[in-house]
Amino acid sequence: MKNNRRDFLKKSGLAGLGLMGAGLSGSNKENTPFKLNNRNSFNMHGYKAPKIDTVGVAIIGLGNRGTGTTRRLASIEGVEIKALCDLEPDRVERGKEILETTHHRPDGYSGGEDEWKKVCERDDIDLVAIVTPWHLHTVQCVYAMENGKHAYTELPAANTIDECWELVETSERTKMHCVQMSSSCHGGRQAALLNMVRNGVFGELIHAEGAYVHDLLNDYNFTKHMYHNMWRLNENIGRHGSLYPQHGFIPISQMMDLNYGDTVEHLVSVSSNDFMMGETAKKLAAEDSYWEQYVGKDYRGNMNVTTMKTAKGKTIVIQHDVTSPRPRPQQPLLSGTEGFYANGRFATDHRRYYTDEEFQELVDQYTPEITKVFNEAVQQARNTERAGHSYFNVTATDWRLIDSLRNGLPVEIDVYDAALSSAITPLSEWSVANRFNSVRVPDFTSGAWKTNQRGMDVNLENGGGTTGIL
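Request: output the structure for the sequence above.
Response:
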């Protein structure tokens, strides 16, 4: 019998797949190539930093995103922009020009690689907004926190698992917040959906999907003057994974209570080949020798799909595609035991969607207090003479961060959220590089997710909402 079984396995090819004997047990081995947990020195979730009546702000990085950040923060009550910093002096001057019609009179820092450190070392800065290339985010966040400043960073907060842990450990040690600028559930449709989830409209939320689908091929990545030293294009070389998951993941994480009630335990990631970036480099190089340096590079695949499973058995799918002409999908997709939402439509029965009018009634019913207060602040700004200078750029996330700092409330997207969402990228790169194997996801709360209270106070039950828009 043993010989017959061995002959069968050989003929069928299953023996070569490691399914004989000990190979079966090997298939259950967990891949844990990264540090999974830590001993919390202090739990920053729910931490109330001392109130700051007027938040002194410095902005580091004044490129495309930094200019917008300057406009947004300058338009929030209780903010005083005290410093602008960039490698290129003309960008600092441009930032000052943007603020000429406001009360802000920031000092400028430029020309040196370490000028940003001088900004972080000032005594009159409370919050450092970091809008620099990805590889600088962690080191600048850490330096800001170590110098007694809260950090507000563009995506991603970190690029490696070690950097994620460094952010967590520094925030806990210094009791300074580290917050990502990111899509969240603070405003608009996302806030209403979050409130619907929390009020049981979906029953138990069991599956969700998000994406970063945005055609950056010609107008962004393969453009000479969009990013300093072509840093964004260079990030797409030699990296294969979900390179920018936060916009799709963070709203879902809030709806699924990740880091406060549940946590992601496993992740698996698959990437397609590149079908467009390499060809684009060749076409451009045929007409402009500048692009020859980008021919033959190992570009990341057109599509990455990353799938996660939580401790409670729920699933999340995140897609990344920044080269194909696919239109942006409406996010997120939410599937519960009693409700389903996708592409702006809602259903409680597989046979029909709600009409637009029926769904709008639900949205109106569950629009939370934070959205109403923010919208009212925007409307009041529209009715003032100064409103034209940038009120329309202010996001509810920006506004709520400043409002929380001024009222001594916990921030609602904390360092653990920044670490978890940033960790998706290096974890997905590991999975892709290891033939799409599953990998364990670190618990950056070190077990505190089991007892942490919800962080998103969308109905302002704990106060706040007192900050205006100028």
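The longest helix spans residues 415-433.
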